[in-house]
Each structure stands twice: as structure tokens, then as C-alpha cells.
Amino acid sequence: MSKPETRVRIAPSPTGDPHVGTAYQALYNYAFARTRGGKFILRIEDTDQARSSPESERAILSSLRWLGLEWDEGPDIGGPHGPYRQSERTAIYREHAARLLESGHAYRCYCTKEELEQMRIEQREKKLPALFDEVCRNRSLDESSRRAEAGDAYVIRMKVPRDGVCVIKDLLHGEIRKDWASIDDQIIIKSDGFPTYHLANVVDDHLMGITHVIRGEEWINSVPKHLKLYEDLGWEAPVFCHLPLLRNADKNKSKLSKRKNPTSIEYYRRAGFLPQALLNFLGMLGWSMPGDEEKFTLDQMLEHFRLEDINLGGPVFDVKKLRWLNGRYIREDHDAPALREELFKWALGPEMVEKIIPLAQPRLETLADWGFLTAFFFADAVPCQAEELKLKGHDAGEVAEVFQFAIWQLERQRDFRSEAIELLFKELAEALELKVRVLLGPFYVALSGKAASTPLYQSMEILGSDMVRMRLRRAIELLGGLSSKKLKALEKRYEDLFGGTR
Ligand code: GLU
Predict the structure, then answer these.
(1) 7-87+246-328 belongs to which CATH class?
(2) pTM of the predicted protein model
(3) Which of 295, 304, 443, 456 is most buried as measured by Cβ atoms within 10 A of its Cβ?
(4) Which residues line ligand 1 (CB under 6 A)?
(5) Does domain 386-498 have CATH number 1.10.10.350?
(6) For the chain, which residues make up each domain, given as ranges?
(7) Superfamily of domain 89-243
(8) How are strands ordered across the β-sheet holding 155-158?
(9) Of 15, 40, 201, 246, which is best to mutate to test ligand 1, by the most ligand atoms within 8 angstroms of its C-beta?
(10) Residue 466 CB coordination number (10 Å)
């Protein structure tokens, strides 16, 4: 028999900015598929209805395209195993959950939140692992179906073995053993009828013919549940390969976080990084070119790439190194016309300049005033002093807190047109009991480097959400930063003021 075609995928959730971690996984999946003449698939995992948004999905697609990582099948281009967006596949998941109920591998759990909490307390007291209600687990299917028909609310859980060991085989990590007793009866269908990640992921990977699951290490602990689902559905599991997580360039190499390091691909695009440099950098993080040459193109990487050669050491996302590499691309790979082309594509083209003109015109006495007035649109960081980030009646720490509130508000705000931003700042001012004009003062400084500049909301629209948030984060650092403890307290206040969680 001929070997099946290699099929790999990335499965991002559209719940925020397009993350460099997604690009990193995409690159290794893409390279693996291309070196084996296989297919690279993009699937959107949007089962978390409350947190997913079409804008985030669009941003993910556009930033992966900008990087040049084209997929063979996906939500926008279709393919033989579509749809490629999980929210359009709910009937498929329900059908498979029904199969698991029928075969006795899953059960309806009618426990309320309070009952479960009580059970946890008792299990903890008895030093037992967190298990689930044996009554629900052992109830006959007939009886459980009767209750469902009578309208009782339930979730569906998979039955996980109570004892024994699960052996996970991973291409990079080798064999990993986990006691089944430490694993809970995972919910596979929520009370709203939507699947959880685990069921949807396994069903899709199987139906989409995925042969290798190459993803971040944070999913390793889910593998036992997935293996069990494959077995219960009578399917062969794919090969697993868990990639090491990206790290901050700090002392203890903590997990990459946007508080310490920009993580949005859009930010890097707006900040003037070249896609080929960012790709090269991501390639270099987990893998080395023979001879250890640091600068290489995607094609050169494809000539040598082997999944087994991925380095398990924590790859550090060191922006300094990325800047150095980007500089090499600018200097070594571009003659003057090519660089002009890049600059135009980035921000100096007519599209951007035309957007700025109406904002700048009322403030120009000479054409030369343009330079100083608009420089902040064509920059990454802007020069600003902590003393200038002032808000009447508030100390530096409080100004930092206001910036943090704005960042959280902006994160929630996927519509980044000036009208929407204006509304958001009005809300913010009201919640903080400040006049909008007063509130905006330190924002002018943080975003443009000056106390007065072009109108702020429209300027923010042109800068883009990622760059705006990045400059606000830098301003917070300038004001002394916010400790984890402070942030926790602040989160609480934010929830009280603005409702919902972040
Ligand atoms: N939706 C998951 C994520 O956002 C996918 C994990 C996987 O690749 O299985 O990372």
C-alpha cells in the first residue's frame, strides 16, 4: 500500500491578535508539509463563541499571508474536507457525541455547578483526585435520555479510565506516561450544545485526514483525552509532535507574554519588520541550519528541514536579535529601488499619506512642518519622558493604571475605526470620572511623543490597534511598570467598572 499523503494543520482560535506563536507553529507545519509533498491546512477553531470574532480571524489570515505561509485548504479557499471553520460544523460534533453516548463511552452529566463544587471539596478532603459523579457516569442511557427529553440541562462527558497508565508517543519528547486517575471526565459537549476543544479537535483532525499534529507544548496534557477519543471512535490517532513554547528574553525565560514582549504579528508588520526576516527568525528559534548560518530564506530552510531536528530548549523570542536580523535583510538584500518599494509597502505609500493629509493640513504653516508633525506615524517607539505623562490629580502609578484600562478596552474593541475609539474613550472617561479632554492628555504624549498632535482618535485608527497598545505598554514601563500583584487588583477594578471579564 502506498503511504498516505502527509497532511498537517494549524488550528488557531480567533480570539485576539494574530500571535507570533501561531506563525511559529505555522512555519514548522508548512515546512514539514512542503518537504514531504504534503498539504498544509488552516482550520479556524471558533467554538468559544463569546471570545471568537471574525475580525480576529481576518487578522490571522492576513498576517499569515503577509508572512508568505500559504495554506492549501482553509476557510477562505475551501477544500475537499470543509467547512474549515468549526462553528459551521456543530452538527458533525453532535453526531459524534451521540455515537459516544450510544457506545457507552460518554455520558450526560446533570450535576449543577454547586453540586460539582461540593463534590470537589469532599474529594479534596479525602485526598482523592478530582473525579466526577459516579451516579451520572453509571446512569443507564435510557434514563439519561428520558431526563434530556424532559428538558433537564446537561453536559456530555467522556468516560476516562479510572486506573492504568496512558502512554503518549511524541516525535520530539519520546514516550510520556500519565496515570489515568489524574485525568478528569472531560466535557465534550457543553450545556449550550457546542463542543469543547477536545472533541472538535479530534473529530476534525480525523475527518480532515491529518497525519501529524504539530502544535505547542501546552497541549501535551490533553493528549490522553484525545487518544481515548480516537480509540472510542475507532480511529487511528495521528503522530503527535509538540513544539517547545516561545519564551521571553528575561532572566527566568518565562513563557512569551505580551506584557513583556510584543506578540502580535500585526505589530511587527506595522513596526517595519520584513516578513522574510520574521520568518527567518522564527525558523532559527527552534531549528538550526546546517553550518549554523543564521540568515536563511524559506527555500533554503525547506532544503534542509527535518522535524526531528527541532531543538527542545526553550526558544527565546529576543526582539534585539530580530532587529539585528531584520537589519541584515534591509542592508544585504535590497538595493535602493528595492528598499524604496519596501518603504512604500510599509507606510510611505500614497494610501497612508492620503489618510494623514486631512489630519495634518489644518496644522501646517509650511510644508516642512509635515516632518515633525507626522513623524510618529512612521515610527515604532516614540520619544517621550515620564514627567510628561501627566494626568491632573493623579500620580504616575495611577496614570499607568489608566493606560492599562485603555489597553484592556482596546483589546476588546475589534472595530478600530475612529468613531468606535471615540466611544470607547468617552466610556473610559465616564467610568474614571474624568473629562475626556483631560483624560486624553497623557495619551497624546504616549502615542505621538508630544502634548499636541493630529486628532487623537483618527491618528489611532491610522496607527492601528497593535501599535497603539504597544506604545501604551511602553508608557506604562516608563512610569515604573505594573507589578503582577497590582495587575491582579486592577483586573478586579476593571471588571467592576466595565463589566465582564477581560
Ligand atoms: N485551537 C487551539 C489553539 O488555539 C489548537 C490547538 C491544536 O493545535 O490542537 O491553539
Answers:
(1) alpha beta
(2) 0.93
(3) 443
(4) 11-13, 45, 201, 215, 219
(5) yes
(6) 7-87+246-328, 89-243, 386-498
(7) HUPs (3.40.50.620)
(8) 106-109, 155-158, 187-189
(9) 201
(10) 24
